[in-house]
Design brief:
Blueprint: H1 15-32, H2 39-46, H3 50-56, H4 60-83, H5 90-107, H6 115-123, H7 128-154, H8 164-185, H9 189-202
Helix pairs in contact: 1-2, 1-4, 4-5, 4-7, 5-7, 5-9, 6-7, 7-8, 8-9
Length: about 200
């Protein structure tokens, strides 16, 4: 018996259009959230016909998974740019990263917070694909923190000998919680308190 595999109809996906859609989706999902981000608003923002979306993505869920990848790639690049400053002590590199994030959030009017944290709260219970994607990137993110903390411990920059993996996860969890409180209070204070406790009491 011969099995026939149906080929995708319509024009072949265009990588440039796909990239445009992902960038448009990143802005809309970060601003409006998953439920409110409709395909129509995404294609309008991207300046392409609605049918083009389905030529590149079979569902909004799969599209959102790619948007999460893009968001993390951009965030990761920023994080690495701070943690790779080997002319500074490891603990200072991590502190500088959070200073940069706090300044950027303040400049942006304390809006939106972290897309990964936002989608975890909104979608993780309803989409296994997106939950796994979010968990994957959170694990990578906390690993960067852990590696930096381990370097600080090895260099004698801090007395706290708690396992670096645990500290890395705790710091990420605390940061995401501070971002949620920032949005609820419309205040920068939760972020400043987070940094004060982390670098004044924990990483010492």
């Amino acid at each position: 018996m011969t099995t026939h595999i149906a080929s995708r109809r319509g024009p072949k996906p265009n990588p440039l259009i796909k990239e445009t859609l992902i960038k448009a989706g990143l802005n809309i999902l970060h601003t409006e959230g998953y439920a409110a981000a409709g395909v129509q608003s995404i294609v309008e923002n991207a300046g392409v016909p609605k049918g083009t979306f389905y030529n590149h993505f079979s569902s909004k869920e799969l599209f959102s998974a790619d948007v999460i990848d893009e968001y993390f790639a951009l965030s990761e690049k920023r994080l690495i740019s701070f943690l790779n400053k080997t002319d500074q002590p490891a603990r200072a590199r991590l502190a500088s990263y959070f200073d940069d994030r706090i300044q950027a959030l303040a400049a942006g009017g304390l809006l939106r917070g972290c897309l990964i944290g936002n989608l975890t709260a909104e979608v993780a219970d309803h989409s296994e694909l997106i939950r796994e994607k979010l968990a994957e990137h959170m694990n990578s993110w906390s690993q960067y923190f852990a590696d930096c903390i381990r370097a600080a411990q090895s260099a004698g920059e801090m007395r706290n000998t708690t396992d670096a993996q645990v500290l890395g996860r705790f710091i990420l969890n605390g940061w995401e919680g501070a971002l949620l409180r920032m949005r609820a209070d419309k205040s920068i204070e939760p972020l400043l308190e987070f940094k004060m406790i982390i670098f004044g009491s924990l990483l010492v």
